[in-house]
Design goal:
It is built from four helices and seven strands; from the N terminus they run E-H-H-E-E-E-H-E-H-E-E. By secondary structure, the protein is α+β, with helices and mostly antiparallel strands. It has a seven-stranded mixed sheet, sandwiched between helices. Helix 1 crosses helix 2. The mean pLDDT is 94.
């Protein structure tokens, strides 16, 4: 799985929160999480907020995976890879390594994705199954495909 030997995947550090926010803003613009959300995520789900960094500790991407109130369930809330680093398998590694770090009691992982987002096909290759389309998930004309992985 380590086809990117100079990329490390690890828990995010507090010193990286502003870089996470800048990456988020650059990729998602008006749909980006606000800066304070990353601090709250760091506090609430420290093991689920993971980063991909190169050998110089430059941030290349992140994943936010949150455990649900249900003991057996988790949600991938966000996966983001810097546009200059896309296509190198970083998103895949973030997902695979984060899923493998989940306890065995988590048997179901969910996510939503925009219908036209190419990441939808990566999720399917990783075993996520489309459960349906939810119209206006994030507001008018913001549809999302719900996908579930049963482990």
């Amino acid at each position: 799985m380590n086809n990117l030997p100079h990329i490390s995947i690890k828990a995010a550090g507090k010193h990286q929160l502003q870089a996470l926010y800048r990456l988020e803003q650059g990729l998602f613009g008006a749909h980006a999480y606000p800066d304070f959300f990353f601090r709250q995520s760091f506090d609430c789900w420290p093991s689920g907020l993971r980063v991909a960094c190169d050998e110089n500790e430059c941030l290349l991407g992140y994943i936010l995976l949150a455990r649900s109130e249900r003991v057996d369930s988790a949600w991938i809330l966000s996966v983001a890879v810097d546009s200059a680093a896309q296509g190198r398998g970083i998103g895949r590694r973030l997902i695979v390594e984060s899923l493998s770090a989940l306890p065995a009691s988590v048997t179901q992982v969910k996510l939503t994705v925009a219908p036209d987002n190419p990441a939808r096909y990566l999720y399917a290759r990783l075993g996520f199954v489309e459960q349906g389309l939810e119209a206006d998930y994030f507001g008018p004309d913001e549809d999302r495909v719900l996908m579930t992985l049963c482990r």
